[in-house]
# Entry
Amino acid sequence: MQVKKFFAGIISLFLGSLLFAQTELPMPPIPSSHEYHHEVILNTIASIAKLHAKTDTVLPFTGNAAYDAAVFRSVKIRVNNLRAKVESNEALNDYARFKWLRGINEMLTGFVSIYRIRQANASLLPPLVKAYEEAMNTDIAGNSIEPIVAENALEIGGVLIDNFALKDNRGINASKDLLVLKTCQRNPKEILNILTRYPDNRYADSLITAAAFRDQEELYRYAAVPNALGRKIQSVNHPLVKIIGRLALTKTGRMYFPFLDNLYKGKISMDSITPYVVNDSSTGYYKLLVKTRIDYAQRMQRGDTPMAAQVLTNRLRSKAVELFINDINALHDEPNENIRFKKLEELGPEELYYLAVMGEEEIYTSSFVVGVYPRIFQRMQIPRSDSLLQLLHGDYYRKFIKICAAYNTLDNFLGRMDKPVAENLMRYFVNGLEAGTTLEDAVDVADSYASIYNKDLRKLILAQVQTNLKKQTDLQSRGALIYRLLNTIFLSLDSTNKVDIAGTLGIDPVYVMPKKNLQDSTGRIIVQQFSYGDKDATVYFSAFMSRFSNANWRIIRKPQWVEISSARGAPITIYANLPLDETQELDVQAQDSLLSYFEEKGIAPTIVIHRGHSYYLPETISRLPSSAKIVLLGSCGGYQKLNDILHICPTAHIISSKQVAAGVVNQSLIDAITEKLRAGQDLNWEQLWKTVQVRVGAGYRDKFEDYIPPHKNLGAIFIMAYDKAAHKK
# Structure
């Protein structure tokens, strides 16, 4: 029924406005000098019939043979009538007749060209022929074809203005300008790129203004270039364009740019910002960024999106890390808190809050737990967390909850507000996950759930997920998928629910890593350990080597790495670069040398281990092989880097710590994994976790509990499951 309605609608359109049913005009005698041109037109019509397939006799407009034949017959009649009108028009001299016959054929070959490169489908042919007839009549009458170009599709206009017979029409330049306008309207993201070729277009001012409201940073970049378009932008008399143009010509323009919306609306002036811009490494500039972000957050709550809001966010993030987080991280070994966190003295609770949410990936566990988090509440007159969120208009509250959960401060955070308020907050935490353009909020919820041990809180979150799932009326919607995945993942954490998470979600097993998935074509398992030359390296690397100095393993020492191979049991080879002097970057040179060796020998590690502090982790991730199936992050806060790893290794099993990593725990995990594999066994994560828990002993039990095994990396599991489900659609 739906297919019939579709065809009926198409045919009604063609027959009503495009078929232009006419009586075929008699063809007057054709002079011998014109016969060739008529023959070319007829041959082109015949070739159009076979554009879809060589066996076709008509171009398939709808797929219905009878309808297609009717449409094509009407097109042929109109083309033949055009030929007849050219030959019978006594006002045309011989050259004019030649010009129009050539023009008719060029119109048809123009259609062939855009059809072949898929710029047009078959339905464009009838209106093109009709538009060409109107353009021909208009031109012969001495009038502009611009109105015809204006009322037809962009592709039709393109064929018309490129036509030999219409090239001297008095409206051709206006029509070209109009086509640039139509092209920009169809591709608003490309306006400025298009205008680089047509800076003098008569619609340029309005198009530049439209581009200014769409992407202010892009206009800034174009306005700064000393070319024709840059000069055109500078000449546009619109307040927003003028501000952006002025900033683009200012050396410190980018420092003002985060405040563009307030500048445009007259809430602040450039002069008032200048003292902070002059010294952008001061606390004052960061505070101004925070103040502006809070203002923007309030507006966004009301549905008003400020211009250049992302620019502000990016600058706020970079300044948070550059001015504060790098400093307090670098002093992680400083026992005196007053010295380590001196940089935070001038910051109020809101500025400390943004340090956490903006620097989530960079901030060390101790920097947050010992430094930023407690100082937020110490500097509030009434240290309530609901008051804090009200002050910030709820900005990034999901991110802050996730961080608190990851660093085991969530109970403290929720305990600083009344219980009903805390429960409502956690319900909101789970609501509206389908509204965003990314999966970040949903991943934050998944990660947080894995870090929450309060049974009542878990029960509340699960119930809210299930409530939201029931509200999804379209079971194929993005929202239904998000909540269905979260529900399945959360239920799987309770073994009494007996949820086969891999089977239900259609992803690789998460509770077990089969040894066959780790073996290369020869049956060998390749392990790569990234080591760094920090001051702790001598301790952990010495312990690492001692664990393999026995009859079960054979060690080959090389100038930049060691090669450890199993002498008994299943074949395993571990490559570990030496933790050479970091001050001369000899450690990363050793890593690169080992990678070159891998490439030369065709070696692809399936297990990757990161050893060293968290600030080295980006170096490891930048060298991470896509072949990795297991990634052990033996550094503080490695849990925050899951998304980066999954981008490179989408199905990897990741082991990471939410808090401070410990060399003893890392080595115990390495021992357990390599011994299981050497014994020819699969890696069952639940069983292996119990084994390691016993090995580390009571002294490191608390540290070990902060490590997250692959089957409890809920954010990673959610991303894998979502990608799998999305690809099925």
In short: The longest strand covers residues 525-530. Residues 2-186 form one domain. The chain has a mean pLDDT of 90.
